[in-house]
Amino acid sequence: MNRLRLGRGLVLLLCGVYFFVPLGASLYFSIDDHHGNVAFNAYTSLLSAPGFLDALYLSLELAAATVVLLLVLLVPALLAARLGAPKLRPVIEVVCSMPLVVPVVALTTGIVGVLRWGPDYLANTPIFQTFVAIQNPNFPVVLLIAYVLMALPFAYRALDGGLRSVDVVTLVEAARSCGASWPRAVFSVVLPNLRSALLSASVLTVALVLGEFTTASILGFQPFSVWINAYGKTDGQMSVAVSILSLLIVWVVLLLLSVLGGRTRKAARS
Amino acid sequence: MTTAPTPVPTPAAVDTNGGGGTPGTATPATPAAPTAIRRRRGGRAWLGALPLLVFFAIGFGLPAVAIAIGAFTTSSDAPGGGGHFTMANLSDSLQGAYLTALLGSVKLSALTALIGTAIGLPLAQAVATSRFKFVRETVLAGSGVLANFGGVPLAFMFVATLGNAGEVTTSLGLKDYGWSLYTFNGLAVVYLYFLIPLMILTITPALEGLRVQWREAAYNNGATVFQYWRHVALPVLLPSLLGGYVLLFGASFAAYATAEAMVGSSIPLISMQIGDALSGNVLVGQGNLALALGLDMIVVACLVMAIYLPLQRRSAKWLSS
After folding, report:
1. Domain for residue B159, yes or no?
2. Do B63 and A110 touch (CB under 8 A)?
3. What domains are there in chain A, each with its CATH number?
4. Inside any domain, residue B225
């Protein structure tokens, strides 16, 4: 048994080395001024870097909008499937899993194809204005649609898992018997019970949107990840600094979430 | 999404509370027969799912139609005008540089998925059996970040570490050994950085499903550690392992951000070729070539899923029984 434990420790140690060397080296790279001194310029000058704040705002706006739209679409659908129309469940599962099958690059080709219909065939119709509007660089709705699609599988799994652990039907029955209206039953009884599932679906979505690169880059918008890439070509040190920061922030958030989620689950059981 | 999806174990098919009607939930004022209630509420329930279905039909359906039509028609800037049926896009997409890129992607994906599976399994086992909850939580949360979020930040971190002026490259003098990050092998090293975490996420539920009793029974009957793994654990894990391999293949195949940020299109990969083609770097009249390339990619991804889903279902059956 002792030898097993030693082996396990060794495996974890090797894994730790493999995963922390790039992190450590990047950290060193970002604070090394190439004269043997340590300088934090890359971090301090970040806020004043051209385009940094705009890109960050765009990403945050998109992330918030994606979370809202995703939950507005998904929660009623899942509740409907649980409460009244069980036949809907396989349909919803297929719909929510489809985006997993199609690689993001391929989905993006499709989107580009659709957007090309605008100038090619619809130039003289009112629909053309819609095509222009959804490509507004200040808030690209087309990216919002793509992100909701990409986040659908994760959010579905998270919410479905949450619903599985709650007896929604009984909860709603009880609330309705006590005279609660439908909206009240949903908002003050069902949703609070799904808090941790809603939270983890949201965090996964935010992480996904902040890190998304493919679609935004191909369609020519400049949210955070695209900015890092573009700016990295001119200031390598700063791009590495931003990369480390963004990875660490998402990591800490996910860690907090799993700790909090674990605690509430345990509390609920006891 | 920059890389692959986090796999979540397929939910067991058991339905604890959704199946059947739910009589008794009707408003107290309408004492109707249960079946009538169910039918009426079913009708309203459809409305709850309607926004999602409409959104999906537009957001996912239109691009799919665009690919299906575009891949088989001439593009609008072609000499004979757009919209004519043709197989040229598809056959072009399977020739020359594009074929090389497709094969390069398949080769890179197959190789990195194999290494990722081989390294991920013992790692996941070490994590799953660790006594420290903190280690488990940290590793799993970290895996979630690296597997899903990676992309561009990952590329820059590796450039800083193993690139031409990277810290490790210069301090160990790796260049003298012929190391370069901007090659097929370099890309494979970077891909493993998100593929191994993905494997850990995929296989951990299966490892947790291995009963302690099975191991104890094997040891009590005099089996060695090796024999236990050879005859008990691996056969049970095999569907999950194959499923994980296929998933890693898919993730690696679909990856775009890391390679684009790191090497651009200097290494032939299908996703890079599509990005190039969409950015307008193709000959006049071949605008629809990108759609055909996208179709190629979807076909490969569908093949991957066709292998993955049954395997996943089978392993779920094994481990939940």
Report:
1. yes
2. yes
3. 47-268 (1.10.3720.10)
4. yes
Distance from CA of A86 to the nearest CA of B (A): 6
Q: Which of B7, B133, B153 is nearest to A255 (CA)?
A: B133
Q: B259 and B32 in contact (C-beta within 8 Å)? A: no
B93 found inside a domain: no
Examine residue B124 and state whether it is found in any structural domain, yes or no: yes
| B53 contact A CB<8A | yes
Alpha helix stretches (DSSP H) within chain B:
34-56, 62-70, 88-93, 96-128, 133-148, 151-162, 167-172, 184-209, 212-220, 225-228, 234-254, 257-262, 270-278, 289-320
Q: What residue numbers bound the domain in which B249 lies?
A: 104-269+301-320
Give the predicted TM-score (pTM) of the model.
0.81
* CATH number, position B262: 1.10.3720.10
Q: List per-block mean pLDDT (blocks of 10 residues) for chain B, which spans 321 residues.
A: 41 38 40 44 71 92 89 73 75 83 91 93 84 77 73 84 81 79 87 89 83 86 87 84 86 87 81 81 68 89 81 68 50
Query: Do the beta carbons of residue B203 and residue B241 sit within 8 Å?
Result: yes
Does ipTM surpass 0.90 in this model? no
Is A143 an 8 Å CB contact of chain B?
no
Looking at residue B85, the DSSP 8-state letter turns out to be B
Chain A residues lying within 8 Å of B18, measured CB to CB: 81-82, 86, 89, 169
Number of domains composing chain B: 1
